[in-house]
Amino acid sequence: MPSSPIDVLARHLEHVTITNLPTDLLDLPTLAEVLDTVPDPRSRRGRRYRLGPLLALSLLAVLGGATSLAKIARFIAGYDPDLRARAGLPGTVRLAASTLGRLLARLDGDAFDTATCTYLASLTDCAPPATADGLPCAGTELTGLAVDGKTLRGSRTPDGTVHLLAATRHDTQTVVAQRQVEAKSNEIPTFTPLLFELDLTGLVITADALHTQHAHAQQIVQAQGHYLFIVKGNQPTLLNRLKALPWREAILNDRTDETGHGRREIRRMKICTVRPHLPFPHAAQAIQVKRRRTDHKTGKTTIVTIYAVTSLPPGRITHAQLAALIRGHWSIEALHHIRDVTYREDASRVRTGTAPRIMASLRNLAIGLARLIGWTNIAAATDHYRSHPADGLQLLGFTT
User: Fold this and answer.
1) Are 139 and 124 in contact (CB under 8 A)?
2) Mean pLDDT per 10-residue interval, the chain, length 400 residues
3) What is the bridge-based pairing of β-strands 160-169 and 143-157?
4) How far apart are the first and last CA of the chain?
5) Residue 245: which of 287, 282, 283, 208 has the closest Cα?
């Protein structure tokens, strides 16, 4: 039976052709085996469902578009009893949504994210190379890793809502690390533990202005990585120094002109080799991006100027690749948009314990798997696996 979701599910995509899949994928554990490593919070007495297969089937339900615990339970109940029995689930017992909710609410969120993110990272390392916006292929040269946070608005805790900080690859939109932000805190203290377990060699960490912090820059460079940080008013001295650089005399390094989504956007990027004593650790280049956006419907034009600093030395990558890294950071925003629109995350009524975080992680895993096997439209992917559940079952190696 096949062990890899990529080589199995790739054959379901009529519009995607993937060839020469690495044999390393065959050595990876099945998804159910990975999820079985998550600590089980239930008492041994009275367990009716094996944890790994149950979570794997829940993932397949989410892959098929399930947005609630009730829909996940109905999806699992729809499988043949013999198949559920082979998965380690009683074929004659109907799973209640409330039972599933209590289980998810008690799971260790850090352990679950570690297991699923490590699994996605392993698949990404073995997957066929892919390019995006002119960036180097995965596994060669430098790869962008976007760090950003998202609030789960439907969650409820004694201290408010759940806020997650995640690291997402630009090229594959796979989440390779995720942490929950402590209550009554912000994302800044969570940045260090988020990246601590990752090998940053060959990665460029991109982040918005909140994470343009001296300690973050030092952590990344010490771990053999690079950073590309947006600079705004939270670093006033640095921002003023960047604005004072001779941008009028600087040459235009890159220009893009794109039309789509009812607007035209022109981006012009200039690079300035940083003058001595720029007040930020390991800063090697300063960047100015002017973004001119025209709305076709209203005719209104807006011009925004963005400043950034990077530890990448001149000549390390091309100007076009540097511009692509800046644009690529918003891939994580696209991921959040998919979770909100396709999976209705903000409208979710899963609220207690760690259940909201586990559901968010299942969505990350579903989107990541779909991207890795070639789906460019996640809504189309959910329609496919909802209509063809047998295809999704091959994730567990139950069918060939």
Assistant:
1) no
2) 50 45 49 90 83 91 93 88 74 81 95 94 70 43 93 83 94 94 91 94 95 97 96 94 92 92 92 82 95 91 95 93 93 93 91 93 94 91 88 65
3) antiparallel
4) 7
5) 287
Full-model pTM: 0.86
Q: How many CB atoms lie within 10 A of CB 113?
A: 25
By the 8 A CB rule, do 13 and 373 touch? Answer: yes
Count Cβ atoms below 10 Å from residue 337 Cβ, excluding itself.
11
Closest of 381, 332, 69 to residue 177, by C-alpha? 332
User: Residues 161, 153: contact at Cβ < 8 Å?
Assistant: yes
Of 344, 383, 391, 349, the residue nearest 363 (C-alpha):
344
Q: Are 340 and 332 in contact (CB under 8 A)?
A: no
Q: Which residues pair with 226 in a beta bridge?
A: 204
Element (H, E) at 380: helix 378-387
Give the pair of three-digit tokens for residue 86. Answer: 């082979």
